[in-house]
Design brief:
The chain is an alpha/beta fold. The protein contains 16 helices and 6 strands. Strands 1-3-4-5-2-6 form a 6-stranded mixed β-sheet. The longest helix has 17 residues.
């Protein structure tokens, strides 16, 4: 046997930690040991395998972050969203801001060569269901990078006492692996320090501010909150841009439903539903459209009517008020 028990243990530890360099170093030690013992064919195959794997550095980084390992696996959920800009229904000005972020990220080399960093730290604020998470998904899809989502509320409750260290792990990943990193429920971490008597929470926020200031512009860091008013004022100047989300108006609500329903919505007179969509979020009208479509399909119909949508919208409003 060319590899010893110690080698196997080291290989397993480095693989679990996601440490490719350590993994390859141990593999080369095994190859060297095999050569000393006269197993030259095995040694040659091991060395060739290591060289070939190291030669695909870019794809290796993407794979490693798409399937987080070690400490990172306990902190984030990874995905490759399939939604595009055409799926994002926002006011024109807000959509333009998202497009500007994408343009700067796509041309980041030209900007960096000119001495300017591309926009890469975004604060998204607004009511639930208005498109903040979807915006993060759209940016990840447009840049062909994974979306890494961390729920700060669960992170802080699960790792209280260790949270600052866990944030360091997150920002190390941000520096090493290009992606879109979404810090959801950001108010769990970013609440105003003036009214916070918990020393640990203040220390965590201070650590986050330092890490964010040093964040690599290759990745996009997004913080999303439903409660801008409770955020510590020191946060605002650390972000490159703040995007404000609001409930959709009647035209936007109709566009969201029309996009979700496709040909099922042929012939719907959308202006007649304006009053029924008032005060509902993007997420609410999507769910109402889906409920209407399901009812139609279950009864064997082929088109959604205004009455179907009105009924679903009113049910959604009642559910949201309950």
């Amino acid at each position: 046997m060319a590899a010893s028990g110690d080698h196997f243990a080291a290989l397993i530890r480095s693989h679990a930690a996601g440490d490719d360099d350590a993994f390859y170093a141990v593999a080369l030690q095994v190859a060297a040991k095999a050569a000393r013992e006269g197993h030259h064919h095995l040694a040659s195959e091991l060395k060739s395998a290591v060289d070939a794997s190291r030669g695909s550095a870019v794809s290796r980084n993407v794979t490693a972050i798409a399937q987080p390992r070690g400490e990172l696996a306990d902190l984030v959920t990874a995905s490759y969203p399939q939604v595009g800009l055409r799926d994002l229904v926002l006011p024109e000005a807000l959509l333009g801001q998202v497009q500007r972020v994408l343009a700067e990220q796509r041309q980041r080399k030209a900007l960096l060569d000119g001495g300017f960093a591309p926009v890469h730290r975004l604060l998204l604020e607004g009511p639930p269901g208005t498109g903040k998470t979807m915006t993060a998904s759209v940016i990840a899809n447009a840049l062909s990078v994974p979306l890494l989502t961390v729920r700060l509320d669960s992170l802080m409750s699960k790792y209280m006492g260790e949270t600052a260290g866990k944030l360091r792990v997150m920002f190390d990943a941000i520096a090493e692996h290009r992606g879109v990193y979404l810090f959801d429920e950001f108010d769990a971490l970013g609440g105003n320090r003036a009214g916070n008597d918990v020393g640990e929470a203040r220390r965590i926020l201070n650590s986050f501010l330092v890490f964010l200031e040093e964040a690599n512009s290759e990745s996009v860091v997004i913080a999303a909150t439903n409660h801008r008013t409770i955020l510590d004022h020191a946060l605002f100047r650390r972000f490159d841009v703040m995007l404000t989300y609001e409930m959709p108006d009647a035209r936007q609500a109709a566009a969201v439903m029309r996009h979700r329903l496709g040909t099922l919505a042929r012939g719907v007179r959308w202006p007649t539903l304006a009053e029924d969509t008032e005060g509902l979020s993007h997420a609410d009208v999507v769910r109402a459209a889906e409920a209407a479509a399901k009812s139609v399909l279950l009864r064997g119909g082929g088109r959604v009517t205004v009455d179907d949508l009105r009924s679903a919208l009113r049910s959604r409003r009642s559910a949201s008020l309950a």
